[in-house]
Amino acid sequence: MAMPMETPEQKKARQHQEDLQRLQKFRPIDDTFMRGLLKDDIPLAEMILRIIIEKPDLVLTSCETQADMKRVTGARSVSLDAYGMDSTGKKYDIEVQRASHGADPHRARYHSSVMDVENLDEGQDYKELPDTYVIFIIERDYYGVGKPVYQIRRINETLNEPFEDGTYILYVNGEYDGDSDIGKLMHDFRCADADQMHFEQLADKTRYLKQTQKGVDAMCAIMEELRNESRIEGMVIILMDMVKEGTLTIQEAAAKVNMTEMDFIKEAKALGKL
């Protein structure tokens, strides 16, 4: 006998219970949980950067999660996991990647380039570009030789000297373990249980998100937001196929997902459908 279909209310209740179970298993190395950890928490992002960059006096003045970069018309858009600025004007992109393929060097190059576009306005001199850091924190050792952090910079091969253009790319080894701060931090990134973490600042935020009603509500809202984003992306892909077939206009397609025509086109370009 066929099972009765879920009502919208039943589906929502089931998804909420599944989210609560997923939340308890989340670790900082999981992108969804990191979004909650760093949201509106400059001190925590500052602590993480101080350890990775090895600058204990670094002062972070801003940090935005899921930051959308402005782009030239037609280019692929980018949403940075965490985008911050320090007191000297340096800019930081922190990306958490479970899978190594998400940290391809070409992606690092592209992230670096969109940060440049974001930070140089018409009429400014090129020397006004701030130093930028693209930081990939990856669950596995991307280069496989056991180093905690791999620092990438351009070099002048003829002179065998750094090419001082102010761009830095770092690959952080999420498997690294040891008594150093970076080893302890990566240990904490792999922990689902706050009581097993070394850094109280990270442990306290983890407890807040997993054990308090406000924190749990915030994480559930993030998971629902991700579901909606995925649903909208799927709809845009289907609707763009219909536009290309001639059965819908762009304006009609945009209306079906409650978007302006401009926003719909932007989303379609980001998904590679235009």
Would you kindly provide a brief summary of this structure?
With 274 residues, the chain is an alpha/beta fold. The chain has 9 helices and 8 strands. The protein has helices at residues 8-25, 31-38, 42-53, 105-118, 181-189, 200-211, 213-245, 250-256, 261-270; strands at residues 60-68, 79-86, 91-97, 132-138, 149-152, 155-156, 161-162, 167-173.
Question: Can you put this structure into words, describing what you see?
Answer:
The chain is of the alpha/beta class. The chain is built from 9 helices and 8 strands. A 6-stranded mixed β-sheet has the order 1-2-3-4-8-5, sandwiched between helices. Helix 2 (31-38) crosses helix 7 (213-245).
Put simply, the count of helices is 9
Major β-sheet annotation: 6 strands, mixed
Enumerate the spans where pLDDT stays under 50 for 5 or more consecutive residues.
none
Taking all residues together, what is the mean pLDDT? 89
Anisotropy-based shape:
globular
Structural class: alpha/beta
Rounded to the nearest angstrom, the distance between the terminal CA atoms is: 45 Å
Could you estimate the helical fraction of the residues in percent? 40-55%
Strand order of the largest sheet: 1-2-3-4-8-5
The tally of strands reads 8
What amount of the residues lies in strands?
A: 15-25%
Gyration radius, in Å: 21 Å
Order of helical and strand elements: HHHEEEHEEEEEHHHHH
